[in-house]
Every structure is written in structure tokens, then in C-alpha cells.
Amino acid sequence: MAADARPSAGHGLLLVRRPPAAVGRWLRRGLVAATVVPYGRWTAVTVAEDAARSAAPFDVALEVLAARPVPRSACPAIGMFALGGHAVVTLQPGGVRRAQHWLVWQPRTGVVETPSLPRLALGELVGAAGGSARVQDVAGVLRAGDGEPLDVLVTVLRLLGLPGEELLVRGHPVGAADVEPGARGVLAFDRLVADEAQHRAEWEAARGEPSVGREREVR
């Protein structure tokens, strides 16, 4: 699979239950240039560039797309991302339970604990996919540490009977359309982040605390 791998923007796929036009409107209010492909009841999204249009530290396109909340009307939304040497599977369920759930897989280890992130239950993932997958089959792939993150994501995608493999692997199949984020929204986000950083620094200075660098947060 490495020979077919997408070279620059990385590998990620978000599947949502909305028509492409509605998904495009949602993406234009975001921070990432994206590629959109319709697959029947699903619309698939991936990043078109490796960097988001927002300033650092919120400038890694795949991380921004992976963490962005999806509108209730577009749920369930299923994400599959190769991030930092890990395979990351996300689910934003429909209904009342709106918190995004995460599953992180690591080579030679399998699924790893993520105490700061809600854990994704495989039964919920299989149910959201709506296919005939068996939970034990998906669990068997994820328990093992064999393969690379992209290979694991493709295998899980196939087991779940979900579309978008070509988009996940190569990034821009036939029928794809690109969507640009609105400049005003990006500027507003950057201003908000800068204001929050300034207020935090002023608060720390007032309390006599040294200003320290924060770890990257994904929003």
C-alpha cells in the first residue's frame, strides 16, 4: 500500500450523513481546505492540504478535521485518520449523546488507552456504520499490533462496509470536489485564539506565575 500512499496531505477520512452541498457549506465555515466525494447516503471528506489555514498550533489539517464537531443533522459521523504514527478512529453519534468518541491504535501494541478522550465502543461503531460487520472481527484487527496505521484503517473500513477507501489512500478520486474555507472565519478564529493567549498570559503575570508553553490542543 505504501506505493499508492498519498505523499503530502496525509491520510484521513470523515464520513457524514449529509448531501455534498450541505457538507460544503459546513466546510466553508471551517479552517481546512477539503476534498469532498458523495458515496450514496454518505459524504466523504478529506483534507486537500497538509496545513490548515489557521495559525499554529491549530494548523495541522488532519488534526483540525478529526476534532471538529459535526452538526447534529450530519450524525452519525465516522472518522479514520493516520496521525502521529497511530491509527485513529472517531465516532460522533446521533441522538442525545453528542460527545465525540475516540479509538487509538499503535503499531506493535494495538489499541492504547486515551484517558483524556472518551473511549469508542466497537459496538457503537459497528452500529453507526449500518452494515453487517461483526464486532469480534473488528476487535481482532485492532487488538493485534500488526501492520501500519493506514493498513489498519483500510482493513477496518472494509470490515465495516464503508465507502471512501480510494479517498483515504490517494486523496482525490474521480468525482471529487474541493472546498475552500472562508477567510473571515479563519481570521476570526485566529483572533479568538490570540485573545485567549493574551488573557492567559496577563492572568499568569498578575498571579506571578511564569508563562509556560501549552501542549498542542486539537479543536
Write the layout of secondary structure elements.
Blueprint: E1 12-16, H1 20-28, E2 34-39, E3 42-47, H2 61-67, E4 77-83, E5 86-92, E6 101-106, E7 110-112, H3 122-129, H4 135-143, H5 149-160, H6 165-170, E8 177-179, H7 183-206
Antiparallel strand pairs: 1-3, 1-4, 2-3, 2-8, 4-5, 5-6, 6-7
Helix pairs in contact: 4-5
Explained architecture:
This protein has 219 residues and is an alpha+beta fold. 34% of the residues lie in helices and 20% in strands. It has an 8-stranded antiparallel beta sheet with strand order 7-6-5-4-1-3-2-8. Strand 5 and strand 6 form a beta hairpin. It starts with 11 loop residues before the first strand and ends in a 13-residue tail after the last helix. The N terminus and C terminus are likely disordered.
User: How big a fraction of the residues is strand?
Assistant: 15-25%
Number of strands: 8
Query: Segments where pLDDT lies below 50 for 5+ residues?
Result: 1-5, 212-219
Helix content: 25-40%
